[in-house]
Design goal:
This protein has 131 residues and is mainly beta. The protein contains one helix and eleven strands; from the N terminus they run βββββββββαββ.
Length: 131
């Protein structure tokens, strides 16, 4: 069973940083893409970006600059480093996964990441940025 568990959320002042973790289990880690998405109160879910099985990273254009995705294959964990946080970054942050994404160069990976087409989801972690 595919499982994704986010952690690391919390309350931070504007300008601060947070690192979220997504611990995974139940699947072949390097065969999957893992992405980060967020949903602010009253808004739809938006993607931050995703990382392929071979470590290639695709960021959604509007998210480039302050967010960095990385992973540790040995720990089967994906991270989202968030810097210079703003009150508008307040949201529930989710990690999600889809299979068949071992290679960054794959058009399948690029398309699914860009369109936020994920198969499995974590429960989310709340991030609140105070002004």
């Amino acid at each position: 069973e595919v499982q994704l568990v986010e952690s690391g959320g919390g309350l931070v002042q504007a300008g601060g940083s947070l690192r979220l973790s997504c611990a995974t289990s139940g699947f072949i880690f390097v065969d999957y893409a893992i992405g980060w998405l967020r949903q602010a109160p009253g808004k739809g879910r938006e993607g931050v970006g995703c990382i392929s099985g071979d470590g290639g990273i695709h960021y959604i254009d509007s998210m480039k600059g302050r967010f960095t995705i990385s992973k540790d294959d040995a720990k089967k964990t994906v991270y989202l480093q968030m810097n210079s946080l703003k009150p508008e970054d307040t949201a529930v942050y989710y990690c999600a996964a889809f299979h068949g994404a071992a290679h960054y160069a794959s058009s399948y990976y690029q398309r699914r990441c860009s369109l936020n087409l994920y198969e499995n989801w974590g429960q989310g972690t709340q991030v609140t940025i105070s002004s």
